[in-house]
Amino acid sequence: LTVTVTGPGGVNVSETGGVLTNDFSLEADTITFATTIDMSAFAAGTYTVAYTLGMTEVDENTNDNDFTRTFKITNGIYGQTDLQQPLYFGSIGKDQGATTTSSAFMGVGSVFYIPTDADLHGINLKVGRSTNYPTTVGSELYVSLYLVDFANATTFADAHIVQAGDWYFPITSTMYPTSNNSSKDVTLNFHQASSGPSTMPTLLAGNYYLALIQHDGGDANHFCYLENPFDDDASTHVFGDFGSTPGNNWFTLGTQVVTELNLNESLNVAELTSDVTVGSIAPNPTSGETTVVYSLKNDATVTIQVVDVTGKVVATVTENNLTAGTQKTTFDAANLSSGVYYVNINTGNSVATQKFIKK
């Protein structure tokens, strides 16, 4: 098997390898091939990866020996959509099979493998507007983040472990396509959610996460999105009160909803107008006494909370009647378990957040 990657700047690199998993006389077989092509220096842009199968035996069907896929390298955007497949409208709503009589609680989303630690700041998706399934402006979407643990789950439902809370977004006219049978690229920026956790979740390397987009629109309302017609790796999941058995159920969709994780820190625009900014946390990583340096635009009483990756507050310090300017607050992290934490500095008008690691 030969894998060739081509793209911007004259990129053209190839690698050949592969191991047959079974006797080649079988009708079907799997070739396992892990490429070591280093893409760390590739510029942002769209790339093509071509797969070519070569063999010394007689091949009865040579038409299926070559295929290509495209992928993007972006700044802070992480997705797995097959760009070469035509996109279709999909939707979630009551007449998609819900068993309830008053409303349809449903969600759809994709599972992502995380190769390195990253903070999640939002979700990118393509909001659709079709003749059959219009999405009503003024209804609400919300995003739930799940840690997916297939290895230790006894049922499909057991694999979905809630990792963080829900971020809510009203569907406004600015995110809605202007004409039927069209779509619009939308970023659900967690920093601008109408409600939800103020601390951005950290996605930890080596784990699978599901970003589930949910909508409770009632009988005559749907959330319309764009999807690929094929989902080769069963990465898109559906959750809702539908199917033959009433209650909340998990299913794989069979098609692939077009979503991306937005890891771009520039989405945190709220801090630009905040009356509090974080200067530093030291030492970081820390194992004991830790100092937070921050700046206040105005005199304020400040509440400082230490929060873990699930959103649980594990420590709180209140500083009364601080004056505008640079301030320092010290807390003891010795009793915290090892891992990622956040410091939230709340003045009552604004909240600033900074990440630190407990060794």
Largest sheet: 6 strands, antiparallel
Radius of gyration over alpha carbons? 24 Å
Q: List segments where confidence is low: pLDDT < 50 over at least 5 consecutive residues.
A: 23-29, 94-104
Oligomer classification: single chain
Secondary structure class reads mainly beta
Distance between the amino and carboxyl termini: 43 Å
Count of individual beta strands:
28
So how many helices? 0
- Secondary-structure element string: EEEEEEEEEEEEEEEEEEEEEEEEEEEE
Overall pLDDT score: 76
Sheet with most strands: strand arrangement: 13-12-16-9-18-19
> Into which percentage range does the β-strand content fall?
over 45%
Total of domains:
3
* Share in helix: under 10%
Would you write up a description of this structure?
The protein has 359 residues and is mainly β. It folds into three domains: 2-73, no CATH class; 88-266; 274-358, Immunoglobulin-like (Sandwich). It is built from no helices and 28 strands. It has strands at 2-7, 11-16, 19-20, 31-32, 45-52, 66-73, 77-79, 88-93, 105-113, 118-119, 122-129, 140-148, 160-170, 182-189, 202-203, 208-216, 222-228, 236-241, 248-252, 256-257, 259-262, 276-282, 289-296, 300-308, 313-322, 325-332, 339-346, 351-358. The strands form eight sheets. It has a six-stranded antiparallel β-sheet with strand order 13-12-16-9-18-19, with no helix packed on it. It has a four-stranded antiparallel β-sheet with strand order 2-1-5-6, with no helix packed on it. A four-stranded antiparallel β-sheet has the order 7-21-11-14, with no helix packed on it. It is globular and about 80 Å long.
